[in-house]
Amino acid sequence: MDNEFNTDTGAMDHNSKLLNEIDKMLNELEPPLSSQCCIYRIPEKLHNVNAATYTPHMVSIGPFHHNNKKFKFTDQVKKRYMKKLVQSSGDSTLKNYIEFVRKREARIRDCYSEHIEMDSNEFVKMILVDSCFIIQFLDLYSKEWCDNHDRSLYLAPWVFSNIALDLILLENQVPFFVLEGLFSLATVAHSNTLSLLDLALHFFKEFNKHNKELDIQLTNHLTDLVLTLHQPPHRNWSNPGKEIFRSVFSSTELKKAGVVFKAALSSESLFDISFTNEVLQIPSFLLDDNTKTYIRNLMALEICHYPDNRCITDYIVFMNCLINTTSDVDLLVQKKIIVNCLGNNEAAANLFNNLCTNVPIDYANFYFSQVCQDLNTFYETPYHRLKAALKRDYFYTPWISASTIAAIALLVLTLIQTAWSIISTVVGN
How far apart are the C-alpha atoms of 28 and 5, rounded to whole Å? Predict the structure, then answer.
């Protein structure tokens, strides 16, 4: 009896200990993502493919790469830019800045996908320095700041270009409402005819050649702004294609089947891809040394924040289907669908192929599903391949066409002569 009692007591002690451990484990759980969350760590599967394209190289913005020693130089630059903004706005403005961020600290923290291990003062100071730097940076850029007389604000072109690219990175952001709020408090806002959104659009003008207008209330941060500039006119769409996505054949294979490739030079959107009457029209797309960085970050934002509206991801997947080899790129470059500034077409083929590594595809909600279906139907029709083969082999050039026609004419005349001889023989007999 005593042994049974001791066993029960021991079990109760173990259960009590386990209960406390589980209770502690549950209490230490990080809270779930807030509905305000819009700035994310890159998912590990994407990050491992090409970490360098997601990591800032010149300037750290926000908490994810804060206090990294490699940014010692630009940390000083950020402080000089903040000092310039504060001096031009008056000492009272700095107090207003601090109060503005402090009142919104919880909301700002909720914008990040991770719990930020910083005390309140450190966090507020970081947000202030980074935000003031961005505001002053955009303002000086709009005023052709390279000609500015204040040499302390001058940045060498290579530094500027690296900072510009770092400002697009998803892990390197502050919420846009913070920038907008601080900008409205600064003197620069009252001495500038442009709004902060106008300054940002001017800075990213290479992505806004058709002067697209944005709703500031729908802009979460600078990465989000660049993504919106790339998207179709209506951000929210639901399965515009009627078919489940099925991969298409490569561009050279489609050409062999009779598909004619044409650059949609007058298109206002990257997504104006159409297939009508054997002609596949695709807007021109520029490839340069920065393409893989900004495209990867836009794709990451779509995957993390807009899982049902992944236009950029779907575009890259579609182009990757068209490109299997260097010959496919050769064709697209020849047709001016790809403007390749990478040096060689093999690099372009590798870029598209690598961009899709570990990228999930939403087969049921693929933006170009109908175009893919039409292309596959066209390719799988034997008549189209036969027609294309005849045209390719016998009517490729005017000289070959003339030779083919002459051969056909000679064959017809020979047949007529043979038939006439047979008829004459039969009648004579």
Answer: 35
